[in-house]
User: Which sequence fits this backbone?
């Protein structure tokens, strides 16, 4: 192994050394390497930090090798179900070799929850993830990586308060660690603290400029806030700095172009992908989405017909729904009804398996709206929003609010659809300008003059100024404006009593708003 230490401020070469060792010496070599880097950096370490450098969570080289193989699978971009199962297999074997290998338990918990969320929504899968993180906590509660895994577990099951508590402990252990900042930003994003999330990611980028994960998160946070020029700038930075991450940054670039309705750029990105690259049907799906946005129905149908499994793995939208959606957009109502009826049967089975999941329920709402089952559709849409409110998850909640607006539109409730859209378009992760401008989703309300105002709003960046900040910036209400309050018919006693009850504060608050 060849090791080099570079001062990234000046690109100056500081130190280098070659290692040629037997693989059995890998742990000793890691410790030696860390100590030499510390020496070159001329920093003094606390006793705890010295212990951390010498830390070994396994002494079994075979278990460590299996762990690294599992990690390589788990960290691949869009690895899909088979890749996650490969990772699981390697990690299970690593734990068999060393039942106390705490890092293997940490990664296994993450892999199991990914499988649970997207591919195998079974109690056994969830229980295995929980058991893995609990075992890691029992073995080494003092290890920062374990606390990060605990935070990740609670984040993925969306218990954000417990995730934050675990992260607080990890932060004390690793105050400048970019992974801590990334997790903290993710939690803040889910809890609607978009401003704080952005600040933490920008700090993480300062601490760890060579970490592509920070860039990916920043790009997508800027996109959710409709700061598209910032997203595009970081995408280009990522493509230049991380050629090995090209596919991930091209995916980010596609997301920004699609949000803007720039289907020309979307098509150029798709055509630049490696031949045959279609992990879990992802490329087929985005190709269909672009064709649908362009209303190129022939291409959209060819994509569906050619793909054995169009939707990405774990995607709950039935393929008949897509055929029905396309027929509906072309005004072929009877053909659409037949497809939507098939989609409804599939969704009924999905809801039996996942009764608490809002995602299949919102698609059932759209399906029933298309079938003319108006009352069922609106009830299902509202139930889905209630299960997945913005107050629980600000990141996904806006998607469900947007879908509810679409249900209203398809059900013929245009006023409700416009009101819903007007509210959700002001939120991060709300409907995009590309969708509102081009997609057949909104054909039922696009002719409404109020829709033009919503489209205009969707092109502007989200205003993150808090209500408190806005009030602080407002000018004080002039004294004369209070004199116009309609109390001419009240006696002095009644007026004094009225104001004494504290109503004055409420009146002033109303005036300010």
Assistant:
């Amino acid at each position: 192994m060849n090791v080099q230490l570079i001062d990234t401020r000046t690109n100056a070469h500081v130190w280098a050394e070659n290692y040629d060792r037997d693989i059995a010496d890998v742990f000793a070599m890691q410790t030696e390497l860390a100590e030499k880097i510390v020496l070159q950096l001329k920093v003094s370490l606390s006793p705890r930090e010295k212990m951390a450098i010498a830390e070994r969570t396994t002494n079994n080289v075979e278990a460590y090798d299996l762990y690294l193989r599992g990690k390589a699978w788990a960290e691949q971009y869009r690895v899909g179900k088979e890749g996650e199962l490969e990772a699981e297999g390697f990690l299970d074997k690593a734990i068999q070799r060393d039942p106390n290998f705490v890092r293997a338990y940490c990664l296994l918990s993450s892999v199991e929850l990914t499988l649970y969320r997207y591919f195998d929504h079974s109690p056994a899968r969830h229980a295995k993830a929980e058991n893995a993180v609990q075992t890691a906590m029992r073995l080494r509660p003092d290890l920062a990586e374990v606390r990060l895994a605990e935070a990740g577990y609670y984040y993925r099951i969306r218990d954000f308060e417990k995730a934050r508590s675990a992260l607080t402990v990890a932060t004390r252990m690793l105050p400048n660690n970019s992974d801590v900042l990334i997790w903290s930003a993710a939690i803040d994003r889910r809890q609607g603290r978009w401003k704080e999330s952005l600040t933490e990611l920008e700090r993480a980028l300062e601490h760890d400029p060579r970490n592509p994960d920070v860039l990916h998160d920043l790009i997508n946070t800027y996109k959710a806030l409709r700061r598209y020029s910032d997203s595009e700038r970081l995408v280009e930075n990522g493509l230049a700095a991380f050629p090995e991450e090209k596919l991930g940054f091209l995916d980010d670039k596609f997301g920004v172009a699609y949000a803007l309705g720039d289907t020309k750029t979307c098509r150029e990105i798709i055509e630049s992908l490696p031949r045959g690259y279609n992990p879990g049907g992802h490329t087929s799906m985005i190709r269909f989405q672009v064709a649908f946005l362009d209303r190129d129905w022939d291409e959209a149908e060819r994509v569906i017909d050619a793909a054995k499994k169009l939707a990405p793995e774990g995607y709950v939208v039935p393929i008949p729904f897509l055929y029905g959606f396309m027929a509906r957009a072309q005004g072929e109502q009877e053909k659409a009804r037949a497809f939507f009826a098939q989609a409804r049967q599939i969704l009924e089975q999905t809801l039996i398996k996942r009764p608490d999941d809002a995602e299949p329920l919102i698609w059932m709402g759209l399906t029933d709206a298309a079938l003319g089952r108006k009352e069922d559709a609106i009830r299902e849409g509202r139930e889905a929003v209630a299960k997945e409110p913005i107050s629980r998850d600000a990141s996904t909640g806006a998607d469900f609010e947007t879908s509810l607006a679409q249900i209203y539109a398809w059900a013929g409730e245009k006023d409700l659809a416009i009101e819903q859209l007007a509210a959700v378009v002001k939120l991060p992760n709300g409907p995009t300008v590309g969708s509102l401008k081009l997609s057949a989703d909104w054909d039922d309300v696009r002719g409404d003059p109020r829709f033009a105002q919503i489209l205009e709003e969707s092109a502007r960046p989200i205003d993150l100024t808090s209500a408190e900040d806005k009030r602080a910036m407002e000018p004080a209400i002039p004294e004369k404006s209070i004199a116009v309050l309609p109390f001419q018919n009240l006696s002095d006693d009644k007026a004094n009593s009225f104001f004494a009850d504290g109503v004055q504060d409420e009146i002033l608050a109303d005036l300010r708003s």
Remarks:
- The longest helix spans residues 333-353.
